[in-house]
Amino acid sequence: MYEHETFKNAPITEATATLQIAHPRPPTAAQFEEYAATVASGFPVKEEKTGFATSLTISGNEPIFQNVPQKFLELRSDDNKNVIQVRPNSLSYSRLKPYISWDDFVTRTLECWRPHFTLASSSAVLGISLRYVNRIDLPNPYEEADYFATRLSYAASFPNTFTNMFLAFSMRGKETDSTGNVLIFMDQRQSNPEKIATIFQIDVDKRTALTTNFEDEVISVMKSLRDFKNELFFLSITEKTKALFR
Fold first, then answer.
1. Which of 129, 43, 57, 45 lies closest to 89, judged by CA?
2. Is residue 129 part of a domain?
3. What are phi and psi of 178, to 5 degrees?
């Protein structure tokens, strides 16, 4: 377990857990509706949406990428703080600000997943991922080295008047089948002359092949991914940043 400080004012604006699922047969629209009815007491707001999945085909030795429309079901609590997205091959639960605690997040995630597995007779969990989106409001302007240990590197003579910034990288976890992706960028819509809103997003995922006793295994994988996420976050910020959240 990665030891870390728990903040009174954590900067988390959204936390999402996703299961990638292999079904023996594609779930039907009727099964989606049955699932929605099962969780309706906690998620009464229902909306059908359309997203896009990218497909790859090879033609004449040339790769062709296409965005394929994909319908999915979004279910929300009355206060819009809890969201489920049901797709043919995945199920996601999101908690929006305020984030309560890790234990609460895991409990709510499992409550969303259990009825889906019962209704859809899912055969395997192929992957588990966590996404944590943090928003950090910093003074305008600020010195990156004061707040971030993981940051852009640029010449010392550069003027410190950046109007935008985007940093992205991926790395393998200590377990070879886990991956971490980090995005750090300015949210210009939420920034103003007094503050710069910086988004620090961490995605961690792990390939799995769970077919039995999935709940205990899912909890175990989620905990290992949380440790990886915390390591990426806490090693990337300074004590001055931590003081903002205490």
1. 129
2. yes
3. -120, 145
